[in-house]
Write a structure and sequence with these properties.
The longest helix is centred in the first third of the chain and has 18 residues. A hairpin with a 2-residue loop joins strand 13 and strand 14. The chain contains 13 helices and 16 strands. The chain starts with 6 loop residues before the first helix and ends with a helix. Helix 4 runs parallel beside helix 10 and helix 12 crosses helix 13. The chain is of the alpha/beta class.
Length: 437
C-alpha cells in the first residue's frame, strides 16, 4: 500500500486537530473515500484506493456496518419530516418511542430517560444528577465520586475527574479537576468469584475507603465488566455485586457507564447483566445509533428522578441544544430494532470464539504480554508502548484498519463481520505484532 500523502492530507495537516494529536508533529491520517458494509475505502495516495476491514467499528459504534439499508431508510424518512427541533417545551415521536424502547430493554428499575449529545455528556449529567440527589436528601457534604483505578469515562471535565488520575489520559489537568476518590483497580480475570482471595482483598480495600469517606461520597461510578479506553481490561462480575452492596450500605448511588459495553458488546445486552446487578443511573451511547449520529442517554430510577424533582431547583439542571435530535433518535430506534430482531447473542459469541482462535497464536510471540477476549472484543497487550505509525501500517498492509493505543493492539469489530472477516482481523493483528513487535 502506498504511503504517499495526497493534497487532501496536506490540507488536513495544515488545518485540523485530530484526537490526542499534535499540530507540530501530527500522526499520519488516511483519507476515507467511501465505506460500505464492514469495509473502508481508503485513498492510496496515487489516485486509487484500497479497502480495509474496519476492525474498530469506528470507535465501537458502527455495529451494523456502513450504509446499512435499514438505518439509511430510517434517516431518510425522518429527514423528510424534520431534522431538528428544540427539546425545551417541545417533544416528538422519535424521542418518545426511543425512550420507551430503552426503558423496555434496560434493567427494570430504570424508568426515566435524559437524552444527551455524546457519551461524555451523559456521564456529566449522571454526576450532576447524583450530586443533586444528595442535596435533595439533605446530604450537602456528599460532593465526591468513588471509583476505581484504570477507568475512563470521557473527555469533558466531570468525566475526566473520574478517569484514572495517574495512568489515564488526563493527568495534565491534575489540580484543575474535582478531587475524587479512587480505589484499587479490580483484580483481572472475569471468572473470579467472591471467595477468591485477591477479590476479597480488593473488596476490603473498597469497603475501607467507602466507610472512611461515607459522608463525602455521592455515588460510585464504574465501567461494568470491561474498562475500555483505560486499558481494555476485563474483570469479574463479582466486583459489581460488591459495589452494589457498598452503595446500599452507605446511601450512595451506583452509576454504570455502559457507553462502550452496552448493546451486546460483552455478550449480554448490558454488561451489568453478567452480575445480576442493577444500577441507579445508567449511561449509554456509542452503538446506540449504530454509528450514524452522535447520541447518548442517561437513565435513572424513579426514586432518583422523584427525589431530584422534589428537591432544590425542582429540575435536572442540564439542557443540551441538540438533545433528543429527531434524526439521531429515529436512527437509534431503527438500530435497536435491527439488533434485537436478530440473534445478536449468538453472533457475538461466534465473534468471540473466532477472535479467541485467531489471536491465540499471538500468546507465543515474544513482544506479547497478554491476549484477552471478552464478547466481541479482542486485545493483544504488548510488553511496551505500541509504535503507532508502524503497527497501524503493518495491520493495514494485511487489509485491516485498527487504532492501537498505549501498549494495546485491539479490535471491537462490527457485529455483521463474517467468520472469515473475523479470522482476517485476528490474523492481521497477530501478523503485524509479529512483524513490528
Amino acid at each position: 500500500m502506498s504511503q504517499s500523502v495526497s493534497a487532501w492530507q496536506q490540507r488536513d495537516a495544515e488545518l485540523l486537530w485530530h484526537p490526542y494529536s499534535s499540530l507540530s508533529e501530527p500522526s499520519p491520517v488516511r483519507l476515507v473515500r467511501g465505506a460500505s458494509g464492514v469495509r473502508l475505502r481508503l485513498d492510496d495516495g496515487a489516485g486509487g484506493s484500497v479497502e480495509a476491514i474496519d476492525a474498530m467499528a469506528s470507535w465501537w459504534c458502527m455495529i451494523h456496518g456502513y450504509r446499512n439499508p435499514v438505518l439509511d431508510a430510517a434517516l431518510k424518512r425522518q429527514v423528510d419530516e424534520f431534522s431538528h427541533v428544540m427539546f425545551g417545551g417541545l417533544t416528538h415521536e422519535p424521542a418518545i418511542r426511543l425512550a420507551e424502547r430503552l426503558v423496555e430493554i434496560t434493567p427494570d428499575p430504570l424508568r426515566h430517560v435524559f437524552f444527551c449529545d455524546s457519551g461524555s455528556v451523559s456521564v456529566e449529567v449522571a454526576i450532576k444528577l447524583a450530586l443533586q440527589y444528595q442535596v435533595a436528601r439533605g446530604n450537602t457534604g456528599r460532593t465526591r465520586m468513588l471509583t476505581v483505578r484504570g477507568g475512563y469515562h470521557g473527555d469533558t471535565f466531570a468525566p475526566m475527574s473520574v478517569c484514572d488520575p495517574v495512568n489515564g489520559m488526563h493527568s495534565l489537568f491534575t489540580g484543575a479537576l474535582q478531587d475524587q476518590l479512587f480505589g484499587p483497580q479490580p483484580p483481572a480475570d472475569f471468572d473470579r468469584t467472591e471467595a477468591d482471595p485477591e477479590l476479597q482483598s480488593w473488596a476490603d480495600a473498597m469497603a475501607e475507603l467507602a466507610a472512611a469517606h461515607s459522608d463525602e461520597i455521592a455515588a460510585i461510578i464504574v465501567e461494568p465488566i470491561l474498562q475500555g479506553a483505560g486499558g481494555m481490561y476485563p474483570y469479574s462480575p463479582a466486583c459489581l455485586r460488591v459495589l452494589r452492596q457498598l452503595a446500599d450500605r452507605h446511601g450512595f448511588l451506583l452509576i454504570f457507564d455502559e457507553i462502550a459495553t452496552g448493546f451486546g458488546r460483552t455478550g449480554t445486552l448490558f454488561a451489568s447483566e453478567h452480575a445480576g446487578v442493577d444500577p441507579d443511573i445508567l449511561c449509554v451511547g456509542k452503538a446506540l445509533t449504530g454509528g450514524y449520529l452522535t447520541l447518548a442517554a442517561m437513565l435513572c430510577t424513579s426514586d432518583v428522578a422523584q427525589t431530584v424533582s422534589n428537591g432544590p431547583g425542582a429540575a435536572l439542571m442540564h439542557g443540551p441544544t441538540f438533545m433528543a435530535n429527531p434524526l439521531a433518535c429515529a436512527v437509534a430506534l431503527a438500530s435497536l430494532d435491527l439488533l434485537l430482531s436478530q440473534d445478536w447473542a449468538t453472533r457475538v459469541a461466534q465473534i468471540s470464539a473466532g477472535l479467541e482462535a485467531g489471536l491465540s497464536r499471538a500468546r507465543d510471540l515474544p513482544a506479547v504480554k497478554d491476549v484477552r477476549v471478552i464478547g466481541a472484543v479482542g486485545v493483544v497487550q504488548l510488553g511496551g508502548p505500541v509504535d503507532l505509525p508502524r503497527m497501524t501500517e503493518a495491520v493495514l498492509q494485511r487489509g485491516v484498519w485498527v487504532r492501537p493505543f498505549r501498549d494495546l493492539v485491539y479490535t471491537m469489530p462490527p457485529y455483521v463481520c463474517t467468520d472469515d472477516e473475523i479470522a482476517t482481523i485476528a490474523a492481521a493483528i497477530t501478523g503485524a505484532v509479529e512483524e513490528v513487535g
